[in-house]
Amino acid sequence: MLGFTLMEVMLAMTIIGIILTPIFGLHTMIMQRMSKSSKRLYALLEGKALLFEARQKQDVQALEFTLDKKFEESSVDAKYTLQQSPDPKSTLTQFEGLRKETIALQWIERGNQQHETLVAFVYKQSEQKKS
Amino acid sequence: MKYGFSLIELMIATALSSMIAALLVTALYQGSRSQTVIDSVFDTSLRVGIVNNILERDLMGAFVPTQARIKDEKEDQEDAEDKKASQKKETDTKKTDTKKDQADEKQKVSKPAEKPLEKIFYGTRKGENLDVLTFITNNPLEVYVGKDSGVAKPKVVRVQYRLQLENEKESKDTFVLVRQESTELDLSKFNATRAYEVIGGIKSCVVKYTARMVKKEEQKKNATPPAGAQKEAQQKGAKPTADTAKQNTPPKTYDYKTMQDWVSERPQEDNKKEEETLPRVPYRVEIRIRLWNKKHTKEQEFTLSFELPVDTMGEQKEDDDKQQGDDKKSASSSKKSGLSTIVSTTAETTSNKKVASNDPHHLVDSLTATLGNITKALSAL
Predict the structure, then answer these.
(1) Angle formed at CA A78 by CA A75 and CA A79, multiple of 5 degrees
(2) B27 vs A56: CB contact, 8 Å cut-off?
(3) CB contact under 8 A, B45 and A35
(4) Which of A40, B125, B200, B232 is the most exposed place for a label (fewest CB within 10 A)?
(5) Which of B68-82, B114-128, B206-220 has the lowest mean pLDDT?
(6) Which of A59, A60, A131 sits opposite B247 (nearest CB)?
């Protein structure tokens, strides 16, 4: 008998399918990563803007301060926190008056919650210390 | 013996091949589409990155150069008084001056005063969009070397950003951000500088400048310390020094004002109207830039914020003025009392003015001045 049997063709199809599936998966993953990185860049820029806005709104000598903001266009939730001291384990604790500024960014990407954190340090001397 | 395929076999083969073809076409379409999306995202991110990086570099170095310092009325008066005093001294000591010297002095007086640099930080808009943003910075992109090799020029340049139409014929709502940089600080001579495109495909670019000023109430409080505290200090016999003054002053609180145009040299009338003195360099610059994608089908907005090193020249000058005023008062009171007070006040003034700077040259100057005063007082006695 000449030609392929049905079984042979089905087998060939399965092999092609096995090869094509990860290629499509890779493509989808690249698209997702691109979208994620784009959104991340956007969120980081918004976070930077919030950092300066919070610095503007807080009292010069404030040791603790929080500010929440939702960016409507990008649907990014940002939270600014000024902490009294950095991580106790950190070597930075030896610098008195050093305060940690944290900006927590959250957004939803294709049903998954994404988050990113910006950290900055600022030097603030307390009023007691000054006197 | 049967030759060839049966109808069912052919049908199945066709169905399978069409399925494969459909899969391949979809893959090809998806691939090309994703390629454009990836290109577009990369392109937008790259453009934002470039403009953010260059602007941050330039703006972080923005400052007021010494050539641009404007002398106010007080300073002019002080200068005039100093001139008069020096002239009087000269006439007392040297009554027989030659005519040549007088002619030289006249020439000096008649010389026009050097015009201070203007538009240190200057930003205007056309409609809502940025038109021109120019300032003086110490972070140039180019390395400037003089004619003689190895002689580097000072790293102080003027930078100018302009928003131009990308292609006037094709699109009226697409702009290009153009940057100019030159060591020529005078804006009138600056325009011949070559311009380079920073990024294109801009739909809109709105700039907001935020000024930071010390609150007026706080300024008043700082200027007039409570009377009770002054009395207590006098009773204790404590001498007011710069350190104690610093400790007593409450922390400064600030007012912020956001505007869409920025002119570093505002007319004095404007300042009076606003009842506040704006700094020459803004505290914060916020740029809302809306970029087209590659195919001009979608747009995305980005916010670029920059916190500039604050121009504290005004605040420092105020503090210096206050200190000088105090010194003058103490000096005038000491004239009335005897020799001991003369010595103490001269020592105080020198310590306030110069010793604080911890400069050995200033120390020597102050000591010689004090000794001179003592000898004068002794000779008078």
Answers:
(1) 155
(2) no
(3) no
(4) B232
(5) B68-82
(6) A131
A23 contacts B254? CB cut-off 8 A: no
Residue B238: what residue type? A
Question: Which position has the token pair 């199945």?
Answer: B12
Cα distance between residue B193 and residue B139, in whole Å: 17
Chain A, window 67-86: residues with a beta carbon less than 8 angstroms from a chain B beta carbon: 73
CATH fold for the domain made of A41-130:
Pantoate--beta-alanine Ligase; Chain: A,domain 2 (3.30.1300)
What is the pLDDT, as a whole number, of residue B349?
A: 37
Q: Which residues of B touch A45 (CB under 8 A)?
A: 48, 52, 302-305
Q: Considering only CA atoms, which of B314, B310, B303 is closest in space to residue B59?
A: B310
Looking at every residue in chain B, the average pLDDT score rounds to 72
From the list B260, B264, B263, B302, the residue with the least C-alpha distance to B285 is B260
Query: What is the value of ipTM here, to two decimals?
Result: 0.74
Q: Is the Cβ–Cβ distance between B243 and A126 less than 8 Å? A: no
Residues B321, B67: contact at Cβ < 8 Å? Answer: no
Q: With CB atoms and an 8 Å threshold, state whether A31 touches B34.
A: yes
Nearest in space to B62 (alpha carbons), one of B220, B275, B266, B282: B282
B83-93 burial by CB neighbour count: b if 16+ within 10 A, else e?
eeeeeeeeeee
Q: Do the Cβ atoms of B20 and A56 come within 8 Å?
A: no
Tell me if B34 and A16 make a contact (CB, 8 A cut-off): no
Number of H helices, E strands in chain A: 2, 4
Task: Kindly identify which residue of chain B lies nearest to residue A128, measuring between CA atoms.
Answer: B247
Of B42, B251, B307, the CB nearest to A60: B251
SS3 B133: strand
Q: On the CB side of B145, how many CA atoms lie within 13 Å of its CA?
A: 5
Token pair for residue B284?
Answer: 């914060």
Is the Cβ of A61 closer than 8 Å to some Cβ of chain B? Answer: yes
Nearest to B264, CA basis, from B37, B48, B65:
B65
- CA A49, CA A106: separation in Å to the nearest integer? 15
Which residues in chain B touch residue A9, judged by CB atoms under 8 angstroms apart? 12-13, 16
Return residues 175-214 of B near A (CB < 8 Å). 210, 212
Q: pTM of the entire structure?
A: 0.67
